[in-house]
Amino acid sequence: MEIKPGLSALVTGGASGIGKGLVLALAEKGIFITIVDFSEEKGREVATLVEKIHTKFHSKLKHPSAMFVKCDVTKARDLAAAFEKHCLTYGGLDICINSAGIGNPIPFYKDQTDGTLSWRHTVNVNLTAVIDCTRHAIKIMEAAKRPGAIINVGSASGLYPMYADPIYSGSKAGVVMFSRALRLYKRQGIRVNALCPEFVETDMGLKMDRNFITLMGGFIPMETVVKGAFELITDESKAGHCLWITIRRGMEYWPTPSEEAKYMIGSSRFKRRSEFKAPSIKLPESFEKMLVQTLTHNFRNATSIVKTSLRFPVKPNHVLVKIIYAGVNASDVNFSSGRYFGGNNSDTAARLPFDAGFEAVGIIAAVGDSVTDLKVGMPCAFMTFGGYAEFIMIPSKHALPVPKPDPEVVAMLTSGLTASIALEKAGQMESGKVVLVTAAAGGTGQFAVQLAKLAGNTVVATCGGGAKAKLLKELGVDRVIDYHSEDIKTVLRKEYPKGIDIIYESVGGDMLSLCLNALAVHGRLIVIGMISQYQGDNGWTPSNYPGLCEKILAKSQTVAGFFLVQYSHMWQEHLDRLFNLHSIGKLKVGVDPKRFIGLHSVADAVEYLHSGKSVGKVVVSVDPTFLHQAAKL
Asked: How far is CA 135 from CA 93, 195, 602, in A?
């Protein structure tokens, strides 16, 4: 939602503290405001300030640009009247900020009363009134069928306990969880979020022990609180989010994806449901597949397409999959040269010919005996050798059920899972860090930048070319470095003098050397590939890495290699998470728009990927009857 003149907002607790700061900031944007507060003197004073600010936006209005309503938010009838008066005056409600809050007047540890004038009242102001206000706001927005933004002001003490005031801490924790649980209203364009600053220099904040405030890094400037609130209002992807603001770590969303995963229930292969309706599959007597016939990095010369019989019955504990889309990877050329089999060349040559392709999505066409959790017609993905084929028989344990057999799902396999698992395990990614992703517009880079951003980090990305830079900006990257027009080393030295905390690196060669030099103290560099040394010239010269040990020892840095195959036990969990993020609009999946149709186009697709021209995941449509009309982003 764009914050622009003419919109209206209702702010409880708007006469002082954070509420007042947000009222004045909204006034500077030309927003009509109703200030709801118990203090008539302070409330009318703030309303007068808003009127003065509005003189530069409005003239000859039919209604006041600001209105004060005296109200005790714990009285349901008075609160309902305040919302009704706002709607009658301004014709609707676009923004609601529930900021009214108090500390517990009697320390809980010493309270010998029944709580009526102490902790019960605190809970009623801090939590019950927030629920009531949110309910009124949603009702108004639903009736008007207009989008709206609701911000419930919580507190950092609602995320972590404040021992000095457990009632305040508990009530604010209720605000946080209540707000996060209302994510489903996003479907109607109504977004509810929680804003959780630490200590702000307000009347309430000044009551805290000064030494403790200093220990926590000092007071948060009101400007930072306003910035956070405006982000929650304007960012359409933010619904059911909690923005935590501290001096020590800045602004970050809580919990991080890795924390959230600890309590999210993984989907069951037995209970999975899909809206996808599979067409009837006619099983042919034979099908085509691609084989590696000779060992070479030249994928086209290494492979050929052969016709083979479709053998029945399906083996026990196996499934037959009709492949719809297959994914293209930089490592296809390593596979065609035999690099992934280990041993010497003669041992690898003895395996010839072998199936090509790493990943695909399709529909289960038949199941073998003892397979009880997978049914004919179910969409599934897999990451085993043999993805470049029309059909494949795989062990049922390797089938990864998915809701739809779309090209976006292919992108989530090797590319998406590598980013998701590598950042969590090898990168040990937290919030509040600076994360650099190289070759960021590629298949896996697009996931890495978004996941790092979702975790609350500052994201820097490198790419080559204007189209790729444009894509990365659309994905929310904070700083895009197009090495066709800027020198990466110069930019990193000038703009990030303290270094980069986490680097997700897939280029190798000179780029890896550059990344090592840019790594911060205690930084972590994740090596997920080295495309510059796979095939051809991608703009980066292959090189050795002299002084590697000295570099990482000097700054207690970590260089971690990551190979997806060794994390197969985590594939389904992370694939479900990626699809969920995509389905609720938090994760965009870029599929390169260039079409490659049929197995005979696979070699073209591999060469296109290594040309450096691709933007997003390169996918081959094995069965063109399922071809999307246009690539999605």
From this structure: 13, 18, 55
